[in-house]
Design brief:
The protein is built from 30 helices and 21 strands. The chain is α/β, with parallel strands linked by helices and 782 residues long. The strands form 5 sheets. The protein has a 7-stranded parallel beta sheet with strand order 5-6-4-7-8-3-9, with helices on both faces.
């Protein structure tokens, strides 16, 4: 038979030996190639390399060797593709080396999951029913897997592993739930490293040029130097006032704290205190000092990810001669190929950005809560591939308190694993008091967090020094009453909880306002390009020039959007959301009275006549808690009020309320056999329960050109890049709204839904869902 082959590409042959050795070497590159060894990474590397040695031994079988040598155009090869199971063989070899009942059995199980799943994904440990053949248990028992004989040689030898290699999982606990979570997380890490190394080795054999593309990033040291230059320029040009003095103090605190050992930190800075770039300065300096690989910035909302990524790119010289902003890679669920309705062709050449999204091998990743946490609980190989690159990173969780209450405990446990066992520093970055720290009334919380700006007294002083807003609860207001109050303001922002309410208020104001050019509506029914235009070309210039400006918005403006109003109205919500809304009020501290004296802005919290729908249960629950807090404290945003808010929202909840999908419990259910329900957990763990569908909006001439390319296939078009451009023109709709708009959509052969009815997209309101307007909105924009 000659050489034993792993793959053939363009008449070039890769042997199984070359592939296995290359995969092992790549894992060493992930974890071992550093001047000073890091214990957490060394032990992870040892397990992953053992899995790599065994992962493709199934390719030594006669059946696979026959298949791989068939010409690609042979009908039999097409028939056999995907039907020769080469993954299970390696898992069975590992199981034979560490049989059930042997004292080293747990080590073998770690390898079995990773090897069996390196193509199909992490399987459930035990079968759901008699017909379930995909579980790890059934695959280990399968006696019809093609035999490999003795061809594998040393690659099928017993790995040099023992219980000592997983002893760290048993430190300081005998709790089966804790041990189960730790072991399941370790398996994910090993699995991720194996999948990434396996795919990189295959990729570089088939398309060697991609290896060089993936290396084309600046170093963390270059990025740190560039950021420091940018921050120095900002400080030089900033007005000499108290606000900027406090921002400078926050930055210096971040730089000082970067010298500390890796672990868990909190950064508690009021909105407008400069925490975004200051936290980045901490992360870069800290990563360089401790030999970490990357910065991962995790943001609650998809709607603002582009803004934060753009702020980082500007800091790294975007548009200048020495631009190194390509270091910033933004990645959210809409960018994930398997989640998109459009599928790329194999010859659509990926960019550096596209390749980095596959495995997060970039210096700075900007992503969302959904992408970050769902990857940590996923089962698909493609989604888990990036997880090992979270190890040895600095992870900044922006507005960490915005994690969903019903999944809070598994999220907290994942965070704990990262900073306790995988050489990862986690920063809980908040504008309100940290909500996830352990305390007597919150035993599931995170331990040993260090506050970057100092102790509680220092945090309180910073709050007082940065206070620029008075918050007043004004009780229940009808829409008519609210409209009258908003009409009376020159510049005002009103934030409500639903898109329907935002649209209704806007329509009512449009009927009653004399100056319709001063009235604006913002929601995710506007595509990102449209929202950017409204912000940058309409709202911000009017605010800067002191012109009338009334904005009705959903909560998309609350986190990270740099706008500054003298007055803000906020529908009842959690105190954290109210604090974010207040952060859009007198943001720069420039408000003065008629005598030129500094005064506070005003944020009015009102109870709407419209009840918060049950589907928004998290907002509804937080609003109810906030209303109770308001009755007990004169300052709704005072530290004591915020502490009581989180006590009721998080800390007094039990394990059932904090883990409604029973993730922790399900992992420990069969800990004796180390059977974890990975697939079931991946289906259950959804930060956003309702699926959405992307609709493409032909908003401007560029969008119309993109639409035409999607309609008519063109061999010269790189559709991967085109799809990325299309993200600026998409609106994601829940299924019930998508069904309403479906008759106005054209579905192309390439799986893109394009809005075809001009009357269904309005220049002020965006995509139109539901009943006709009470008036012809389009005429008001002329």
């Amino acid at each position: 038979m000659g050489r034993l082959l792993a793959r053939i590409s363009d008449d070039r042959e890769q042997t199984i030996q070359a592939h296995l050795e290359g995969t092992i070497k790549q894992i060493s590159h992930f974890f071992n190639e550093r001047e000073k060894p890091i214990e957490e990474l060394e032990r992870l590397s040892k397990l992953a390399r053992a899995a790599a040695r065994l992962h493709d031994v199934g390719k030594f079988s006669d059946k696979f060797q026959y298949y791989i040598r068939l010409p690609n155009d042979n009908p039999e090869k097409k028939k056999l593709k995907g039907r020769i199971d080469h993954s299970t063989a390696g898992a069975q070899v590992a199981n034979g080396h560490f049989p059930r009942g042997g004292k080293e059995f747990p080590v073998g199980r770690i390898l079995e999951y990773a090897i069996a799943g390196h193509h199909a994904g992490l399987a459930n440990g035990s079968p759901k029913d008699a017909g379930d053949r995909a579980s790890l248990k059934k695959r280990l028992e399968n006696d019809k897997i093609p035999a490999i004989g003795d061809r594998a040689g040393k690659y099928a030898d017993k790995p040099d592993l023992s219980l000592d290699d997983i002893a760290f999982l048993l430190e300081d606990t005998k709790d089966p739930k804790a041990i189960a979570f730790r072991m399941s997380f370790l398996i994910r890490m090993v699995f991720s490293a194996l999948v990434d190394a396996d795919r990189l080795n295959a990729e570089w054999f088939e398309t060697p040029e991609k290896k060089q593309i993936r290396k084309d990033f600046p170093s963390l040291k270059e990025l740190s130097e560039k950021l420091n230059t940018h921050l120095a320029e900002l400080a030089k040009n900033a007005p000499d006032n108290d606000l900027n003095h406090r921002r400078a103090e926050v930055l210096q605190s971040c730089r000082n704290a970067a010298e500390l050992d890796p672990g868990l930190f909190t950064l508690t800075v009021p909105t407008g205190g400069g925490k975004t770039l200051s936290s980045l300065a901490f992360a870069l300096k800290h990563a360089i000092k401790h030999g970490m690989e990357r910065i991962i910035y995790v943001i609650p909302y998809t709607s603002i990810i582009e803004q934060n990524a753009e702020e980082f790119r500007k800091a790294f010289g975007k548009g200048k001669a020495d631009d190194i902003s390509k270091a910033v890679v933004e990645h959210h669920s809409n960018f994930e190929e398997e989640n998109a309705s459009y599928k790329f062709d194999g010859d659509d050449e990926p960019s550096l950005h596209d390749l980095a999204c596959e495995n997060w091998d970039a210096p700075v990743i900007v992503t969302t809560n959904v992408q970050f946490f769902e990857s940590l609980f996923a089962s698909r190989a493609s989604q888990c591939r990036k997880v090992h690159n979270i190890a040895n990173s600095v992870v900044i969780l922006d507005e960490a308190q915005m994690l969903p209450v019903n999944l809070l405990r598994p999220c907290i446990e994942a965070i704990r694993e990262l900073y306790e066992r995988y050489h990862t520093t986690v920063v809980l970055c908040t504008a309100t008091q940290p909500a996830l720290n352990k305390r007597n009334d919150f035993k599931f919380g995170l331990e040993d967090a260090r506050e970057i700006v100092g102790d509680k007294a220092m945090v309180e002083k910073l709050y007082n020094d940065l206070k620029r807003v008075e918050v007043e609860f004004i009780g229940k207001k009808t829409d008519d009453e609210l409209v009258e109050r908003l009409k009376a303001e020159k510049q005002v922002l009103c934030i409500v909880n639903t898109k329907g309410h935002a649209r209704k208020l806007y329509e009512e104001l449009l009927k009653k306002c004399d100056n319709k050019d001063a009235l604006f509506h913002l929601s995710t029914n506007l595509c990102p390009e449209h929202r950017s235009k409204v912000f940058n070309e309409l709202i911000r210039p009017r605010l800067k020039d002191g012109l009338p400006c009334i904005v009705i918005s959903t909560q998309l403006v609350e986190a990270g959007v740099d706008i500054d109003f003298p007055t803000v109205y906020r529908a009842t919500a959690g105190i954290d959301s109210i604090a974010q809304a207040a952060g859009r009020c007198n943001r720069e501290g420039k408000l003065t009275d008629e005598n030129g004296q500094k005064i506070h802005g005003k944020t009015f919290v009102f109870e709407s006549e419209r009840k918060i729908p049950d589907v928004l249960h998290a907002i509804k629950q937080a609003a109810q808690v906030a209303e109770g807090i308001n009755r007990r404290y004169p300052d709704l945003l005072g530290l004591d009020a915020i502490e009581d808010f989180f006590k009721e929202l998080f800390w007094l909840k039990g394990p059932v309320q904090l883990d409604s999908k029973k993730i922790i419990e399900s992992l420990a259910k069969d800990i004796g056999n180390i059977f974890f329900p990975y697939r079931d957990i991946a289906e259950a763990f959804r930060l956003i329960d309702s699926p959405t569908t992307a609709v493409f909006i032909p908003y401007d001439d560029d969008a119309k050109d993109i639409a035409e390319k999607f309609r008519h296939y063109d061999n010269d078009t790189n559709y991967r890049k085109l799809y990325r451009k299309a993200q600026r023109y998409t609106v994601s709709l829940y299924q019930h709204d998508f069904a309403k708009i479906r008759p106005a959509l054209e579905e192309t052969e390439r799986g893109v839904f394009i809005l075809t009815s001009a009357g269904k997209y309005d220049e002020r309101l965006g995509i139109v869902i539901g009943d006709p307007y009470d008036l012809d909105i389009s005429k008001t924009n002329q």
